[in-house]
Structures are given as structure tokens and as C-alpha cells.
Amino acid sequence: MLRVWTVTELRAALQSMPRPVGLVPTMGAVHEGHLSLVKQARSDNATVVATIFVNPTQFDETQDLEHYPRPIEQDLALLESEGVDLVFTPSTDEMYHPGFMTTIHIEGPAREFEGAARPGHFDGVATVVAKLLLQSLPEVVYFGRKDAQQVAVVRRLVSDLDIPVALAVMSTIREHDGLAMSSRNVTLSEDQRRAAPALFLALSAMRDRYRSGMQNAVQLKEGCTALLTQELLFDLVDYVALVDEETFIPWGGTGSCLLVAAVRMGSVRLIDNVVLD
Ligand code: PAF
């Protein structure tokens, strides 16, 4: 696996690598969720590129940015073991050189939920994803469905800016107790970690109700909120909503939709979703 730090090195390396190229963008702290994206990219493409960049512009709290896990050697070993050909690990100055002044702002799917709770977050995501796509020009880019709103935002970005890339969206990978894999899980205390699966359990319970015929959006939302409120270690149930997966507007009541939720435990924010179909 070749490691490069600059855009010039990345482009030079890619010139001699076979196409198609699959890109897996990450912020590091690589877990099974990322590796499932790499595995899919490996089976779909001749070249697999991964990026590790903890993007400061998508963090609203400096605290969160400072404490974001950065086990770089472990990350490199994991990516290499899954057959990544090229890993791009730029510095903040390489991505945002002095004088950088361009930000991509997306409305629509970026407005509510995570967008409302974390002002500027999706502008940061959209800008860095656009940069990574333009720097590496892959045929396919891979994202996990756990961050479903991010997927909707990137879909909008790629469509609106005519970026020639296909989006591959992979299923959420979960711990044995249902907790969605996330780089932030390592920051949970033991008690918080024990309580965290209650988020997925509440979502799954509503999915079961939906499948057994109870398809009223208000009742599903209320039922989910009630279950989440029972978990005393959840300090805040930030939102529970049924939305259209592509637009993130409230579900119209027909066809499949996503049940999305976010809770807060101390300084940790957990998000998850299930498909209702
Ligand atoms: O999902 C993430 O890890 C990040 O938001 C991404 C897509 C790598 C952009 O920084």
C-alpha cells in the first residue's frame, strides 16, 4: 500500500494505477464499517483509494475535534490488510491552504436533523467531499448508510455539481448488541457503552411494529421517542423522524422511508436509522 500526503503525489500515483478507481473517504479510527466499504470497493474496482483526514470544518465543537481518535498506525495496517492500494493522509494545510475561502453550502437534505443540531457541519462535509472527489476523480465513492443524511447531502452535491462519480451506499455494520459501528464509540464510558444499543433497539421495535401493519408516522415517532426516553443514560432525545431517504423531507405515508434518531449521552452524540419497508 502506497501512502501519499499531498494532492500532487496523489494525482501522480493515480496516473499509473488501473481504472476503475473506488474511493473510501474516512476520518480514520477505522472500524468494521469502514472495512466493509473497502471490501466492496476492492471487489468492484481495479484500484482502491482510501483517505484519512479528520476534517476540522465539519466539527462544530473544538472539544470534539481535539478528542477525535487518531490511531493512524492501526488505521494504516487495517486498510492495508483489506487490500487498499493507495492511502491519502493530507495535513490540514494541504487540504485548506492559507487563503482558502470556498465553502459549499447545501440546502434541502442538509437543513434539518444533524444539519440543525450541528450548524455548518454539512457545509464542511460537502466541501471536503467535493475536494476529495476532484483530487482523486474516482469512478465510485463508498459511504455507509449509518450516516444516511450525509449520504443524502453527498447525493445532492454530486448531482448538483455534475461530479462524474457513482455513489455506493453500504449497509450499517453493527456490534453484536446492535450498536452501529462508529469511530466515536470508543469515547463512550463503560456505562454509556452498555446503554447505547437502546437506540437501535428502539428503532428496531418500531420497524417490527411497522412490518406488523402499524404504519402511522405519528404513532411510530411517539413510540420510538417513548422507548428512548426510558433509557436514563440518554440525556437528550434530539430527534426522531420518518423521512424520505433521498430528500430527508418528512415521509409522505406511502412507499419506504427511513426512521432516523439522534440521542445525546454526556458529550457523545449517537445517530442511527432503520429502513421501514
Ligand atoms: O463520514 C465521514 O467519515 C466523513 O464525514 C467524511 C465523509 C470522510 C468527510 O470528512
Task: Note down, in words, how this protein is organized.
This protein has 277 residues and is of the alpha/beta class. The chain folds into two domains: 2-170, 3-Layer(aba) Sandwich (Rossmann fold), CATH 3.40.50.620; 183-276, Pantoate-beta-alanine ligase, C-terminal domain (Pantoate--beta-alanine Ligase, Chain: A,domain 2). Helix content is 39%, strand content 19%. The protein is built from eleven helices and nine strands. The protein has helices spanning 7-15, 32-44, 62-67, 72-81, 92-95, 114-117, 121-136, 148-160, 190-195, 198-211, 217-230; strands spanning 2-4, 21-26, 47-52, 86-88, 140-144, 166-170, 236-243, 257-265, 268-276. The strands form two sheets. The chain has a six-stranded parallel sheet, sandwiched between helices. A three-stranded antiparallel sheet has the order 7-8-9, with helices on one face. Helix 7 packs across helix 8 and helix 10 runs antiparallel to helix 11. The longest helix has 16 residues, at 121-136. It is globular and about 55 Å long. 38% of the residues are buried. The model has no long low-confidence stretch (mean pLDDT 97). The chain binds pantoate (PAF). Residues 25-27, 55, 58, 125, 128-129, 147, 150 line the site of pantoate. Pantoate (PAF) binds at residues 25-27, 55, 58, 125, 128-129, 147, 150.
